[in-house]
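User: Predict the structure for this protein chain, please.
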Amino acid sequence: MSFMEMLINKLDSLFIKATSKNLSPEEVERKIELRSQKREELWARKKQEYEAKKQEQARIAQEKKEQEKQEVMAILQKVVKIDELNYTTYEYNEVRRKRRFFKAVEQRVFESGEYGLTFIGCEFDKSSKREFNGYLFVTNKRVFFIDRNLHNLHKFRYQTIVNVSWFQDGILEKGLYIQYGSRRLEFDEMFDKEQMKRVGNLILRLSSRR
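Assistant: Here is the predicted structure, written as structure tokens:
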């Protein structure tokens, strides 16, 4: 019994004694015991109801979590080659947060027979005056950058990619240089180093095969 429950029982006992002066001591004690028993039964029932409610909320939360995971995985497997490359925590979380975006990319940007291998969020510095925030995708057919609004699509062929290198861009940010023929493409504002390496190394591997 908690301290609060003991305090309530004590106060209730004093109240009964104060309002039962016409009853014998035995009758007062029986009244106190009956009152205490009913209160304990009520507390036990409330506790059971509370525990049942907590379990139901936990069950619903788990179902929602499983449903969300299924939805995320259904989209993720379209933009990442899971069966060969597995998937990273970064990729899972990005798809989870932006399901509509990635689903739209798969439906509207991917060509026939094209599937995603990996991706990373970044900024594409097309020129000193034009910068786009979006994602760099690596697919079985090409590399492309698409902005977050799906308005600006920039495609890059593996045959034209000469080299890929990464650089430090500030304290937390990193970036990729892609030597595309005579042009050097710059993609920066990358915040996950391992994901950046995953993307860069895969582009290097695929471009060297062409």
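The chain has a mean pLDDT of 87.
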